[in-house]
Structure prediction request, 181 residues.
Amino acid sequence: MKAARTSLALLSTLALLAMATGAAAQSSDDDTVVTPAPKPRFTVVDGDTVKFGPQVVRLFGIDAPERSQTCDDGQWRAGALARKALEEFIAGRPVTCRLVDPDRKTRPPVAQCFAGEDDLQEKMVSAGWAWALPVNGKDRYGPDEREAALRKVGVHAHKCASPAEWRAMLRREALKREQGG
Prediction:
């Protein structure tokens, strides 16, 4: 029930954006036609985050390398490559997302997103560009991650910390600098 209300809220937000851009397309009289305003722009932020206009959406059940995250002692740019992989999986197709839950930590909504029939989360994990996150005790993308690790693809072919470990390392380093160490 809560997910349905939250899903409705996201859809309402996207509908309002569409209505706001559509209002500019109305003509003032029969002789004048105003060109429609562009639709809200869709962009890939990183390997597990997208934007519909100003609305940030996190992909459900996965954690991809952070934008600036590197592996192999800084020699391999995992974050940039994960972002590029997500863009290639989308390949200019329309993206649809089904709201799953708001992300309590960072506040953007969490949604399961698809490019056509392709589950983008599954594609990212299967290709080794993201780790699976168990959600509510369910391991939706875990089998895909284990298969990618066995095949040694993407992050599994390199010395990579998970994004959570990488963020923790950055916090420890910042704390050390603050303490003069």
